[in-house]
Design goal:
single chain; 4-stranded parallel beta sheet; mainly alpha; 13 helices
Amino acid sequence: MRLIQANVSECFLYITLSHRWSESGPLLRDIEGRVIYDMPVRGVQAFCAVARELDYLWAWSDTCCIDKHSSAELQETIASMFAWYRHSALTIVYLSDIPDTGSLGNSEWFRRGWTLQELLAPQTVLFYTQNWSLYEDLTPSNHTADIAVLEELERVTGIETRFLTNFSPGWDDARSRLQWAALRHTTRPEDIAYSLFGIFNLHLPVLYGEPAENALGHLLSEIISQSGDISVLDWVGEASSFHSCLPAHITSYERLPSSQPQRHTEEQPSTTSQALSLFDILCDLAASLLLQFLSRFLTSPSTAPADRLRTLDSYAPSDVYDFHSLNRVPLP
């Protein structure tokens, strides 16, 4: 039975393609029922040729394997996309705009929203350049295990190596995950929120046509609800019409999060203690405004829990924190 299971598993190993075509790629209806090598779609043909060369029997490309005209299939696809890349034996990243002598950072692939999870989800990744050559003629079995490539990826994406080599979807370090997506963009504005569902291991409705602010608002409120992490409220920019405690655009997370507040002691008096204590007030106010979204307690950046609201009179002189940017949490 073990031998049968091993053989069957090997037969159904598949590789996935991550790409940003320089022109419109083929869709399911373009290739359905046809032999791929008889069609003028060189990118997909080259991908299939690489799959066969590497002894894989199955290859998956999103534009060719998803019926985007079916709303039900599209919903299921977005919910499953991260898992499909995670369970693939290999993900080929095709950088169509990078010549053989080019560098990763010049590719548009690193500025697209959907490709973020396509970088983080797979266990094994190989980068191919414009002419379908391995990046910099490197011949490792996994580019995300190559120290030089990892260092370059960290510079290009701002994502720490530990996440690039061993990423787990979820809510840990939520503020950083949002920052990774801050400078990325999608063709449909609401997709910038949908493309992060897998990163946070969330399953939310996909409603194409809804305002992008609403899509992002639903995502952020669910992150706070599930994790209790109000570092998500650390942003700078335009407030959302969905909720004024949330940003209107993902670009509001571009800046680094403000540093962890440090408590003043009685031996370190501050002349701005009244203003500094406003930090706790704002945190509690933000918590109260978001209670409608929450199913769990919030965690406060301070050492005091934020599972209860406190009045101004309840703040002791020592209950004061360094706070560098009072305008980071916009009031409604």
